[in-house]
Amino acid sequence: MASKVIGAGFGRTGTNSLKIALEALESQPCHHMLEVFPSENQINWFHDKANGEIINWHEVFENFGSAVDWLQVRKDKTRVTSK
Q1: Bridge partners of residue 66, in order along the sequence
Q2: Domain definitions of the chain by residue range
Q3: Cα within 13 Å of Cα(61), Cβ side
Q4: What's the half-sphere exposure (Cβ side, CA atoms, 13 Å) at 77?
Q5: What distance in Å separates the CA atoms of residue 75 and residue 45, rounded to the nearest whole number?
Q6: Single pTM value for the model
Q7: CA 70 to CA 72: how far, in whole Å?
């Protein structure tokens, strides 16, 4: 599923509250830094990105309807577009 909403914010700016609100509005999971730590795949993807490797963002976010937090800012700018 493609992300419908991307909330690009740094830590301690209310991203967890925004995550909870988006999940309630969309009835779909919202990606947040909290999803990375318990997932070995998520850790590996962001580790690879930090080391300059090209990763498949569609695979990383395939189970999320939206995404918030610093990771959204850090990742490839090509995912952020306007219509």
Answers
A1: 5, 30
A2: 5-77
A3: 23
A4: 0
A5: 11
A6: 0.76
A7: 5
Q: How far apart are CA 4 and CA 66, in angstroms?
A: 5
**pLDDT per residue as tens digits for the range 31-51:** 998 899 999 999 999 899 889
User: What is the spatial distance between Cα 54 and Cα 76, in angstroms, rounded to a whole number?
Assistant: 9
User: What is the spatial distance between Cα 4 and Cα 31, in angstroms, rounded to a whole number?
Assistant: 12
What the block records as the tokens of 33 is 């830094």
User: Chain centroid to CA 81: how far?
Assistant: 15
Residue 30 per-residue DSSP state: E
Q: Which two tokens stand for residue 66?
A: 């939206």
Q: Which residues are CB-contacts of 37 (< 8 A; sequence separation ≥ 6)?
A: 43
Counting as low any pLDDT under 50, the low residues of the chain are 76, 81-83
Residue type, 40: E
